[in-house]
Design brief:
mainly alpha; signal
């Protein structure tokens, strides 16, 4: 009788880790809708490369466009960094999930 109980206990002990182990948490990627769109750089007017340069109004217009672009980039940068941070967290969570699955097989 004791041998039977001991045998049953050994079988349960061998099976218990697979049942007692918690489910592996699957990684969830960041929502693609939160990916920021990089502003388009302003097109350089052809007159900048010309020998005589640009007329004043065109140079001022291009300068204003560059200033507006710089403001857009300044607003874009923290959004892009936050998205990269979310992507890196996803990569880590994916790795943790894979390691959990490997351990579950052992």
């Amino acid at each position: 009788m004791r041998v039977r109980l001991l045998g049953a206990a050994l079988v349960l002990t061998a099976l218990l880790p697979s049942f007692a182990m918690a489910e592996c948490t699957k990684a969830v990627p960041p929502d693609p809708a939160t990916r920021p769109t990089k502003p388009t750089a302003p097109a350089k007017p052809a007159c900048l490369d010309a020998k005589g340069g640009c007329p004043g109004w065109e140079a001022y217009t291009f300068n204003d466009t560059v200033k507006a672009y710089n403001l857009q980039i300044a607003a874009y940068r923290p959004l892009a960094e936050a998205y990269v941070k979310a992507l890196n967290a996803y990569v880590k969570a994916s790795s943790d999930y894979a390691q959990c699955e490997v351990k579950a097989l052992q």
